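ok new one. same drill as before - structure tokens go in, u give me an amino acid for every spot. 466 of them this time. try not to just spam alanines like last time pls lmao
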């Protein structure tokens, strides 16, 4: 492993535009699209209003994608938003963004995906809990490391397997990701085709008007729409991390931007079609009556195809979650590698494998911390903070783009500039303020975890000066 000297161009540029696009799609299509329809239906919104929430969240995501695409034209390095913040604001803000991704967004999100993958796998095979005798042991009555031990062990094994696979080569990992992503897109298209062709329900939105649903007594449209939109944002989350592979994608100044835009557009179209299919099979009242522990997409599939349909969706969820986990494991370590290059992460994370030319030490850091998060069982709270903490930095990315355009660092034409970053910034501010008001405890914990990076920043600053 190399710890000093010239590290530039150590990672091979062998990822195509198609692989980049599939990485974006793979990161976005996970569990959200299968699970969010029920809580959305329970908001009291009508079918068209829920579709509007998906559409509006998709538009905001496109504005963000255009912002990232503009920033991607400024550099050919790996690291994604870390590198954009470094160019726009300097080392302090860029470090806090990378630290937040390491402690919350990346590791917490991957831990949740690994846990869900193991849970769904448990529907097919019996997963024993070998540490069940210790399940009530806790740390501060908050963290229960031995609860659901079987699922956690399987989840950790999946993290380990995918980490090793991706250490063995970016191209091999990308090919595997492409196969999984294409498979889950095809699976969703099958479900969409069956759903849209369904004629067994009188409650159809195809070619007919939607009757008003019964609103809860305390219903307010803004609150319900915002709640539904937050659910959609969770299903759309992950696209920013795809920019982390900039150092390994062919012609990154063009293909990185194209990958993000194409990938987000594919996912928006898929999500709208699958929701049309859901509403064509079950009415809003039927969907809202589904239990909180049930998966809406499974109930829809069972209505269409009986028990075979529910098994089909279980397999589809298994593939989708596994694919999203693989995409996350591919993307996040590249940021830690770039931070180590700038001496703002543990210095051995700069290691590039002599044979596979991948940032294998950064992979190990990422995999170990993700496994710790999974074992702690605290990832549910952390994933609730992903959208909130993410949008704090998303807003700053808009400011970075405007700053880099104005000072001449970015000279290429940026699609949608300056409207896209300004609108994206405005929404990020609104979402952040709304979350601070509506969920103050969650917000303060998220901010606290972001600020926990400050002492580490000064530690790395001191080590850098030595």
């Amino acid at each position: 492993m190399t710890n000093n000297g010239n590290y530039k161009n150590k990672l091979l540029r062998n990822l195509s535009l198609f692989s980049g696009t599939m990485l974006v799609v793979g990161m976005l299509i996970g569990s959200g699209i299968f699970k969010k329809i029920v809580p959305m239906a329970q908001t009291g919104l009508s079918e068209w209003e829920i579709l509007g929430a998906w559409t509006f969240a998709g538009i905001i995501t496109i504005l963000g994608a255009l912002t990232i695409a503009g920033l991607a034209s400024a550099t050919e390095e790996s690291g994604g938003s870390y590198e954009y913040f470094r160019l726009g604001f300097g080392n302090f803000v860029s470090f806090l963004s990378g630290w937040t991704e390491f402690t919350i967004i990346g590791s917490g999100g991957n831990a949740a995906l690994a846990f869900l993958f193991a849970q769904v796998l448990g529907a097919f095979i019996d997963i024993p809990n070998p540490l069940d005798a210790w399940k009530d042991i806790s740390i501060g009555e908050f963290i229960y490391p031995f609860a659901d031990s079987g699922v956690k062990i399987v989840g950790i094994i999946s993290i380990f397997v995918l980490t090793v696979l991706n250490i063995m080569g970016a191209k091999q990992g990308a090919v595997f990701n492409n196969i999984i992503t294409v498979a889950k897109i095809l699976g969703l298209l099958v479900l969409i085709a069956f759903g849209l062709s369904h004629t067994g329900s009188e409650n159809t939105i195809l070619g007919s008007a939607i009757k008003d649903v019964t609103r809860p007594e305390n219903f307010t449209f803004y609150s319900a729409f915002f709640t539904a939109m937050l659910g959609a944002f969770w299903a759309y989350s992950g696209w920013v991390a795809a920019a982390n592979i900039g150092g390994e994608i062919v012609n990154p100044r063009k293909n990185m931007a194209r990958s993000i835009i194409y990938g987000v557009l594919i996912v928006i179209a898929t999500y709208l079609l699958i929701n049309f299919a859901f509403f064509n099979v079950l009415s809003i009242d039927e969907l809202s009556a589904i239990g909180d522990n049930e998966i809406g997409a499974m109930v829809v599939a069972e209505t269409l195809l009986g028990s075979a349909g529910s098994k089909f969706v279980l397999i589809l969820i298994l593939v989708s979650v596994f694919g999203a986990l693989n995409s996350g494991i591919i993307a996040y370590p590249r940021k830690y590698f770039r931070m180590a290059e700038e001496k703002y992460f543990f210095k051995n994370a700069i290691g590039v494998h002599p044979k596979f030319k991948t940032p294998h030490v950064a992979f190990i850091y990422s995999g170990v911390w993700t496994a710790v998060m999974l074992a702690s069982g605290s990832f549910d709270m952390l994933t609730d903070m992903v959208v909130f903490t993410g949008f704090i930095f998303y807003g700053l990315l808009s400011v970075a783009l405007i700053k880099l355009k104005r000072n001449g660092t970015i000279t290429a034409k940026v699609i949608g500039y300056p409207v896209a970053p300004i609108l994206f910034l405005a929404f990020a501010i609104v979402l952040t303020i709304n979350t601070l008001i509506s969920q103050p405890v969650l917000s303060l914990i998220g901010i606290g975890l972001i600020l926990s990076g400050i002492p580490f920043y000064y530690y790395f600053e001191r080590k850098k000066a030595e």
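The domain at 17-465 is CATH 1.20.1740.10 (Amino acid/polyamine transporter I). and btw DSSP finds 18 helices and no strands in the chain.
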